[in-house]
Design goal:
Elements (H helix, E strand, L loop, with lengths): L8 E6 L22 E7 L3 E2 L5 E2 L8 E4 L5 E5 L2 E7 L3 E5 L2
Antiparallel strand pairs: 1-2, 1-7, 2-5, 3-4, 5-8, 6-7
């Protein structure tokens, strides 16, 4: 199944939540924090301006991004959780 985001939305694959603390304690499923980082899978064409022109999306496939805790909509594609997020809800790009 393929999803093509509309306008300035992007499809993000969240990073896996950590199941072990830094001190080595394993966390139960309910205690794991929701990840706020992920990798861009695909982007929409960009937002349509008042003049009818598309404004290009500034992130690209493969970028690692940070988004708000309650941003976007969670969906499941072929058993894998993804997020559809507006570009304006992205907080930043993590540079390696």
């Amino acid at each position: 199944m393929k999803v093509k985001p509309l306008d300035d939305r992007v499809l993000v694959k969240p990073t896996e939540a950590k199941d072990k603390t830094a001190s080595g304690i394993y966390l139960p499923e309910g205690a794991k924090e929701k990840p706020m980082t992920g990798t861009i899978v695909v982007t929409g064409p960009g937002k349509l301006s008042d003049k009818g022109e598309r404004t290009a999306v500034t992130v690209k496939k493969g970028d690692t991004v940070v988004y708000g805790k309650y941003a976007g909509t969670e969906i499941e594609l072929e058993g894998v959780k993804h997020m559809i997020v507006r570009e304006s809800e992205l907080l930043g790009v993590i540079e390696k």
